[in-house]
Write a structure and sequence with these properties.
mainly alpha, t-SNARE coiled-coil homology domain-containing protein, 6 helices, 2% strand, two-stranded antiparallel ribbon
C-alpha cells in the first residue's frame, strides 16, 4: 500500500523551514568582511561592492544549494495546493507562492551579481594586458585591438557568453524591479517568516501545555474513579451486612411467635 500523503499542516511547516533557510542563506551572502574579523550587513559600511559578496567559490556553492531549496519549495507548494481544503488554505498557498517568487527573484539577482563580478574582474585583466601590448608595440605599427566583447572579458573560450544580461535573468514585472525593491521584498518576507515561526512556536507551546493539562486531568479522574470504586465496594459490604442483620432479626421474631418452629 502506498504511504499516506502529508497533511496540509506538515507541508506548511516544511515550506516555512525552506523559506527560512533560503532567507538566511541570501542574508548571509549579503554580509561583508571589514578586514578585521568583523562583518557588516551593508556595503556602505565597508565600501565593498555588493557583487563582491558572491565572488567566492564557497558562495557560489551556497547559491547553487539555495536554488535547489527553492526548487523543493516549488514542489511543496504544488502539494499544498492539492492538499488545500478551504479558502483559508488557498489564501496561505497564494501568500507562500508570492514569498517563494520574491526569494527566487532575489536569488536570480545574486546570481547576476556573481556573474557580473567575475566578468568585471576578467575584463580588468584583459584591459591591463591590452595596455601592456600597446606600450610594447613599435611606432608605426598597429597592435591588434580586442573587440568590445573581448575587452569586457565576458566571453568564454567556447564563445558562449559568461555574463547573462540582467534583463535575461528576469521576466515580466520582475525585470523591472530595482535592487532596492527586491531587498525590501526579501526583508518583508523574512519578517513574515519570523512571525510565522514565532506563531508556530507559540502554538507548539500551547499544545504542549494543553497535553500536560489533559494528562493531569486524566490522572485526577483515575484517582477519583479509584475512590468511587472503593466507596461502592464499602457500600456493598455495608448493604450485605444490613441484609444479614435483617434476616437474623426476622428469624428471631418468627421463633418468638412460633416457638415450635
Amino acid at each position: 500500500a502506498s504511504p499516506p500523503s502529508p497533511s496540509f499542516d506538515a507541508l506548511s511547516e516544511e515550506l516555512i523551514r525552506l523559506h527560512a533557510s533560503v532567507g538566511q542563506r541570501l542574508a548571509a551572502l549579503q554580509s561583508f568582511d571589514d578586514g578585521e574579523g568583523g562583518k557588516h550587513r551593508s556595503a556602505e559600511a565597508t565600501g565593498v561592492a555588493p557583487s563582491a559578496a558572491y565572488s567566492s567559490k564557497a558562495n557560489l556553492r551556497e547559491l547553487s544549494q539555495t536554488s535547489r531549496l527553492l526548487d523543493r519549495a516549488e514542489v511543496v507548494l504544488d502539494s499544498l495546493e492539492e492538499a488545500s481544503s478551504d479558502d483559508d488554505d488557498e489564501y496561505h498557498v497564494k501568500m507562500w507562492r508570492d514569498v517563494t517568487h520574491a526569494l527566487r527573484v532575489e536569488h536570480c539577482r545574486a546570481m547576476g551579481e556573481a556573474d557580473h563580478r567575475r566578468t568585471s574582474t576578467a575584463g580588468g585583466r584583459t584591459r591591463t594586458a591590452t595596455s601592456s601590448l600597446s606600450e610594447s608595440t613599435p611606432t608605426g605599427t598597429t597592435a591588434p585591438q580586442p573587440n568590445d566583447t573581448e575587452e569586457r572579458g565576458d566571453v568564454l573560450p567556447s564563445g558562449r557568453a559568461a555574463f547573462v544580461p540582467r534583463d535575461e535573468l528576469f521576466s515580466g514585472s520582475s525585470s523591472r524591479q530595482s535592487s532596492s525593491s527586491v531587498s525590501s521584498s526579501v526583508s518583508s518576507t523574512a519578517a513574515r517568516l519570523r512571525s510565522q515561526n514565532a506563531t508556530l512556536e507559540r502554538a507548539r507551546r500551547i499544545m504542549a501545555d494543553t497535553e500536560d493539562t489533559a494528562m493531569s486531568i486524566s490522572s485526577e479522574l483515575g484517582r477519583q474513579r479509584g475512590a468511587i470504586s472503593s466507596v461502592r465496594s464499602r457500600a456493598g459490604e455495608a448493604a450485605g451486612m444490613a441484609n444479614t442483620g435483617n434476616r437474623i432479626v426476622r428469624t428471631m421474631q418468627r421463633r418468638k411467635r412460633f416457638p415450635w418452629v
